[in-house]
Queue: 2 jobs
Job 1
Amino acid sequence: MVTNNVRCLEKWEGKLQIDYNEEWAYLDVLLAARDYIHRGYFLLTHPLAGSVKPNQTPFKSIILSEESLEGAEDFRDLTLIEESIEAYHKFMGNRPLPEWSEKSVEDFRTIDLSLMEGVMANPIMNRR
Amino acid sequence: MKLELGKIYIRDVQFAEKTYVKDGTLYVCKEEIEKLVLEDERLTGARVELARPGESVRISPVKDVIEPRVKVEGNGAVFPGVIGKVGQVGEGRTHALVGATVITCGKIVGFQEGVIDMSGPTAKYTPFSQTNNVCVVIEPADGLETHDYEAAGRMAGLKTAVYVAEAAKNLVPDEIVTYETKPLLEQIAQYPDLPKIGYVHMLQSQGLLHDTYYYGVDAKKFIPTIMYPTEIMDGAIVSGNCVAPCDKVTTYHHLNNPVIEDLYQHHGKDLNFVGVILTNENVFLADKERHSDMVAKLAKYLGLDGLLITEEGYGNPDTDLMMNCKKVTQAGVKVVIITDEFPGRDGKSYSLADAVPEADTMVSCGQGNLIVHFPPMDKLIGTMDYVESQIGGYAGCMNEDGSFDAELQIIIASTIANGFNKLAARTY
């Protein structure tokens, strides 16, 4: 899991290999995921998971695996991550991320954590 | 499956000592609603307020909107598996208080949720400026966890709607509309020369504040299935989605799905409306691959000539939309997608986060990035404390006189991606 959400780190440290950096912006998580894809990893979760747009939430978590679960077409993951990076720049160009209150920031951590909890509860995660 | 929808038209809403309908006016008992909502110990506050078309009233932040409906004849109860017992719905007769809604408002999390203006220049962007709204403003118990608060808010709205709808049970409807879809082979045989058309209804299912329920089942946990279109009219689908006001499909929009309504309008005339395929919008890419395969399989299995697809949300769901579009097209079924757009401020960027060559026919429901001005209103239902951080708002957007500027996406259902609005983007 690549993430900048400390609550994901706290929840799954030791259970998943976690690449966490609290200094990372949303974009940095996308870029880290892109680098893993170039190294042969496959995306398990959609990079833009959640309807909260990239210029609205500071947090992003993405799960990748060395093994593909679905035999997707070549370059699907690379296309998806590049489209996500492009979408990030489009939204940030339109309006940058607001200065959220700590309460809102915590709400955004909760939303991101919840998206990942849904993923972790999926039986497919227990297949390996 | 055949459903008679008895419409009772509501033109006004007033408080009274009991809840009933007389001469097109809905009278509601405030105390009974507040008592009903506060039966849930997760909520410590419930205040009922009314909002009518043309009034200088702003409602914010809105969680869900629900049309009051009650089962009069036939199996089951409205909102099966959530409020009513689990049991098949979609047959018999249902009464609806058309022109009335129940709206739940209250802060669920710090940044989300939308605005409804009952008058002024922004009223035209939401259908709920034209309805008589019973607003329930809720407050959580101290320290209530976000998931529990969302669930409590969802149930408060549904319970109130069911309570209000009881008033419609013994009334003679102003109009009765009959909708019927037969079992597949009979339906195809009824209009053998007309094109067989289906509808793929994609349900938001990504997690907290992004969930939808079908007969009470969390949509992220099901696999694509077939639904009679009339089931949705009895509340088989309930919204638990709170994110992105502009294209959120409220429970009201599920009950009044415009694609289903219009397909029935054309049914037997220029097309044969065969049924609905329900699918979801999960976070897992493996789920997306599996479920889009299944959608294409069902489309082919039903013998469809064409189908319409709607999505809910932006980003992650765009990938489901494109996978569905691509695989259904490759299965030999023609596809039209319906969605709203986020092309950036100049309107020149990609509208969606994903695209495939097969997605060559699309109905646009408008773009959410347009900035509009909201004048001050005399009365506020809810709170404007969060407007700067609501989706579409921004730091400094609020003025001292109560007016503010924000992107269109702050308004409930302004660019809803199933076409229950009046916006579109045109190509010049």
Job 2
Amino acid sequence: MKKRWYDYLWIASALYLILGFFNILFAWLGLLCFFLPLIISITTGSKAYCNRYCGRGQLFALLGGRFGLSRQHDIPRWMKSKWFRCGFLLFFLVMFGQMLVNTALVFSGARDLGQAVTLLWTFKLPWHWAYHGGVSPWIAQFAFGFYSVMLTSTVLGLVTMALFKPRSWCVYCPMGTMTQLICRAEYRPERKKTAC
Amino acid sequence: MGNGKRLARVDREHCVACGCCVKVCPKGAIGVVRGVFARVEEALCVGCGKCAKACPASVIEVEVAKQ
């Protein structure tokens, strides 16, 4: 199978995580992974983002497949249930909202900028070296918050990649669930062809 | 296994439409329909099972088609 340009987007995903280690403001670029899937699914009614352009999925496929870092086991049944997928999406959105509130508090001056990355919504990792000033505190706060979201989901994805199939993350990825819900809402089954 | 043709079958109810199966299919016999589920083109499918192995949700199985 001939490789296309978009088969190399895993490089962008890896680069994103690396750049955030040096300058947290690069985290803003992650908004692309948030808006593009939504725009594509709303306008075209397809999951072309997941199917072709998701660099993170490619990264997991590469690490778990070619690099052999996956056990290649079946994912537990409950992890592919509607309840878990929608529940995780909801949890993710609540955490995302909390991050936005935090950004708003820094914007209004009610809270000081916290130069830390929060892993798995719990563990605060020092990350001050990646902030060099020069922007409004809320811009930096959003970057720290967004990078936390991206790093957390990458870590979760790596864990399930190792335990189950390489792209297990795709089963419960909140963006994947959201775009599939949008596509399902837009879906009209093709008319059955008359039997000949 | 009998003499029937081997075919990949997708559990559409649990398919997450990620497209991993599409990427590995050597025959271009599987596609994601409108971002909702994967569908196998039975005439093209050779039942190799690559899609079943790649599927992160393990919702594809290779079965012997009824004749």
